[in-house]
Amino acid sequence: MKLVIGGSTGYVATEVLSQALKNPAITSIVALGRREAQLSPETGSDAAKLKIIVCDNFEDYPDNVKSELENADACIWTIAITPKRLSTIPWEETCKISRDYATTAVKTLDTLRQPQPRGKPLRFLYMSGHLSQRTRAQIPAVLRDSGLSDYSLLRGEAETLILNYAERSQGAVQSCVVKPGLIDAPGAEKREVPGVPHIELPDIAAAMLDQVVGGFEKDTLSNDDLVLIAQRALVG
Q: Mind telling me which InterPro entries this protein's record contains (predicted)?
């Protein structure tokens, strides 16, 4: 399996990359990011299946980047603006990074694939968040009170666009949205946000890899779903 990791230097993607390197089902990894991904000293011979690609244009991929993305089997997309950074980035840029980069990625990866046998779709997994909502009526009070309603809807819009793209692809693409809560590093003190569940960093990475390798159980996976999938994957 050839796996693309979008946002390969981020908090979650770094753990995804670490686990993917150790996964024998994944034979080729493209780590796509604005900066070069850093490998741990323990990586060893597993690094042979890794290609690190630095890209500064996620709206129109250069030809040299496209050539590395050809014939990918799956993608885990983690690029987005976090709520903490909203005050430092213009809203238009937030929309572009959190929504448009992802939709461009799934379209590009789809068009760069050679025709595949039936039953071998591109699996595109978009990492969203527990409080992202697809309609304004669904927005909880904690987001309205925090001024995050538009951000929640933006992430929800990205979810819808990615799922709709797969529906229109006639089986060429399968997409999945994962909606983790607060992602905790092992041993770190847990933050608390009312109504938001927790998941450990190794668990969210293991769950996402399990789904792109083995197939999506459903098109939207909640935090509870991810915890259960991770428990099964890590035991196995």
A: NAD(P)-bd_dom_sf
Q: How far is CA 13 from the centre of its chain?
A: 8
Q: Which CATH number is 171's domain given?
A: 3.40.50.720
The domain tally of the chain equals 1
23 Cβ contact list (under 8 Å, min separation 6): 209, 213
Q: In 3-state terms, the chain is what percent helix, strand and coil (to 5)?
A: 45, 20, 35
End-to-end CA distance of the chain: 19
E-assigned strand segments in the chain: 2-6, 28-33, 50-54, 74-77, 122-127, 173-179, 182-184, 198-200, 220-222
pTM for the predicted model, two decimal places: 0.94
How do residues 91-140 score in pLDDT, each as one tens digit?
999 999 999 999 999 999 999 998 877 779 999 999 999 989 999 988 88
Structure tokens at 168: 């229109």
Quick check: 25 and 51 in contact, CB under 8 A?
A: no
Residue 129 CA: distances (Å) to CA of 23, 80, 177:
25, 10, 9
Amino acid symbol at 10: G
Q: What is the largest CA-CA distance in the chain?
A: 51
What is each CA distance from 137 to 133, 134, 141, 146, 152, in whole angstroms? 9, 9, 11, 16, 12
In this predicted model, what pLDDT tens digit does every residue of 140-180 receive, in sequence order? Answer: 888 888 889 999 999 999 999 999 999 999 999 999 999 99
Query: For residues 199 and 16, what is the distance between their CA atoms, to the nearest angstrom?
Result: 14
Domain that holds residue 148: 2-235
Based on its alpha-carbon atoms, the radius of gyration of the chain, rounded to whole angstroms, reads 17
